[in-house]
């Protein structure tokens, strides 16, 4: 079962690796990788036409602020850009709403960027509801040049929330594993794929990255010591801690919602079973006592239950049990092969990889209250789905053109954005938590 479980090829390596320690480099080494290119493949049922003018004095900024905001909003699939290149508006303007209505805009954005005496940048924007003729307010952020992209993402989040009522995720981060030749790199990037950093590079595989709830650490499985061990690493400082290095394999880390524990899969007592261990590596406790392979645990948002994969019924299916251990209930019944569960932060949904009758591995979505299931993709080799912090999008890996690529999809499956790198295979994406606020 292991060789065909999520991250299917990666787990096969986990079981068979005899790699020796060496080749790793710690600390941030980026920016290092090629940037993503986003391709919108679908069209939403409704899109808000929005005009985003070039910010006043944006030419003096090292970042194209209005273009970043525009790309963020378009990637969500909920917005359609209206040409505003001739606009001379800024955040202090009083735009003629009738003029913008005649251009087909429902919303209008204008702003400015000013270099302050201390070298920081004062970024301001304003948003108007053109249809209602309402001033929807704006935002002012004072940031160093290095944070200008984040400032643009924050503004996109603000616009998204004001116009949809949902939290934006443009200022969040993702993590994934990149492979070029024999070099494996753990990559952290902005949600749009820009601003890449490389917390770890190794000639040995890196698998199963998982964000801590505060976004400060990543847990993952490392093969550097000649066997699979679970490691946590502070993203900024590079400081690492081995939290599970028992006899046999140590795999599939998943942080508890309070960040104090990790659920892991260990084979120390024979077959692969679920355990919890403290984030400091202490207090190991066994959760399952089955004769099957139990793996890939994920926590419910309130920390009360664990969903996991087991072949105890004869084929890989997803089960649920109390977080302290106990009786497990089967959750998936459609299809003979369902793996890689991930729960939405709002607790409403579970995404997973299910194998279709034709043999394809596709991203599926289950509404937990009703048990209703639908496939979100029509590809064949999907892996590792992970929810955005606002529970509105899913990032996953798939094969396209003979390469591993990353995709995002909305929960209705209509809008998919392909995130590509020209030189690397990328896999095992995981969406990080909401970013801490920037100073206003």
TrEMBL record:
Biological process, per Gene Ontology: cell division; protein import
Record flagged with keyword Cell division: yes
Main location: periplasm
Keywords carried by this UniProt record: Cell cycle, Cell division, Periplasm, Signal
One GO cellular component term noted in the UniProt record for this chain: periplasmic space
InterPro entries xref list: 6-blade_b-propeller_TolB-like, TAT_signal, Tol-Pal_TolB, TolB_N, WD40
Keyword Cell cycle in record: yes
Subcellular location: Periplasm
Ranges where the TolB N-terminal domain occurs: 37-136
Family designation: Belongs to the TolB family.
Complex formation: The Tol-Pal system is composed of five core proteins: the inner membrane proteins TolA, TolQ and TolR, the periplasmic protein TolB and the outer membrane protein Pal. They form a network linking the inner and outer membranes and the peptidoglycan layer.
Function: Part of the Tol-Pal system, which plays a role in outer membrane invagination during cell division and is important for maintaining outer membrane integrity.
HAMAP family, per the entry: TolB
Name the UniProt record assigns to this protein: Tol-Pal system protein TolB
Organism of this sequence: Aquabacterium olei
Gene name per UniProt: tolB
């Amino acid at each position: 079962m292991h060789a065909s479980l999520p991250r299917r090829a990666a787990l096969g390596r986990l079981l068979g690796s005899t790699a020796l320690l060496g080749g790793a480099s710690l600390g941030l080494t980026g920016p290092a990788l090629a940037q993503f290119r986003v391709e919108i493949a679908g069209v939403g049922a409704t899109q808000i036409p929005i005009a985003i003018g070039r910010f006043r004095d944006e030419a003096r900024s090292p970042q194209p602020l209005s273009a970043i905001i525009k790309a963020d909003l378009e990637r969500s699939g909920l917005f359609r850009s209206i040409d505003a290149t001739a606009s001379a508006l800024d955040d202090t303007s009083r735009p003629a709403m009738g003029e913008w209505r005649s251009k087909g805009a429902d919303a209008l954005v204008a702003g400015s960027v000013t270099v302050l005496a201390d070298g920081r940048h004062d970024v301001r924007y304003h948003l108007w509801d053109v249809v209602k003729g309402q001033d929807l307010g704006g935002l002012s952020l004072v940031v160093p040049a290095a944070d200008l992209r984040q400032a643009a993402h924050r503004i996109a989040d603000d616009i998204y929330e004001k116009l949809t009522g949902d939290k934006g995720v443009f200022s969040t981060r993702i993590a994934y594993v990149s492979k070029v030749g024999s070099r494996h790199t753990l990559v952290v990037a902005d949600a749009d794929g820009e601003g890449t950093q490389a917390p770890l590079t190794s000639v040995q595989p890196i698998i199963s990255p998982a964000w801590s709830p505060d976004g400060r650490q990543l847990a993952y499985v490392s093969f550097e010591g000649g066997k699979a061990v679970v490691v946590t690493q502070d993203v900024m400082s590079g400081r690492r801690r081995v939290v599970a290095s028992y006899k046999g394999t140590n795999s599939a880390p998943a942080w508890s919602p309070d960040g104090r524990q990790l659920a892991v899969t260990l084979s120390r007592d024979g077959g692969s079973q679920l355990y919890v261990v403290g984030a400091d590596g202490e207090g190991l406790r066994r959760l399952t006592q089955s004769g099957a392979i139990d793996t890939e645990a994920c926590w419910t948002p309130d920390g009360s239950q664990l969903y996991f994969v087991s072949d105890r019924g004869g084929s890989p299916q997803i089960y649920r049990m109390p977080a302290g251990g106990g009786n497990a209930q089967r959750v998936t019944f459609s299809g003979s092969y369902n793996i890689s569960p991930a729960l939405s932060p709002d607790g409403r949904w579970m995404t997973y990889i299910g194998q279709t009758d034709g043999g394809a591995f596709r991203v599926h979505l289950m509404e937990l209250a009703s048990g209703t299931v639908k496939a979100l993709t029509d590809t064949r080799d999907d892996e590792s789905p992970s929810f955005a912090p606002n529970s509105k999008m899913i990032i996953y890996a798939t094969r396209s053109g003979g390469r591993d690529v990353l995709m995002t999809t909305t929960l209705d499956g209509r809008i998919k954005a392909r995130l590509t790198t020209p030189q690397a295979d990328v896999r095992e994406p995981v969406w990080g938590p909401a970013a801490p606020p920037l100073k206003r």
